[in-house]
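[09:14] KT: can someone run the structure on this one? pasting the chain below
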Amino acid sequence: MTTQLVVLDAVAVERLRRLGGQEFLVEMIDLFLEHGPGRLDGIRAGMAERDAVLVQRSAHSLKSTAGNLGGRVVQGLAQEIETLAADGDLEAAAPLVERLTAGFGELRAHLERERSRR
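[09:31] RB: done, structure tokens below
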């Protein structure tokens, strides 16, 4: 049996919308779209520099913000990368960074669609 991860958890999105309305949701999405690429760049830079602390911190931050918005795939991959970096195993984290980059692109597309909903 294959388990498919949800790119964007509709329940989490709706919870944010109920909490503060569409305007609040748009603000949260905008913040993620503004800062998320920098966190992803931090992971990549840490990998290139073999800086496990930078990878761990950047992955932790991306995991948290993606989780708040319901970005389950990005959250899960960032968690795995964070854990591996904490253990100093950047070699095992390397293929996950590629998957995280792709997942981030998918999440961005979903969030941009949510952002335009009225």
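[09:33] KT: thanks! The CA atoms of residues 5 and 17 lie 22 Å apart.
[09:34] RB: yep, looked fine to me
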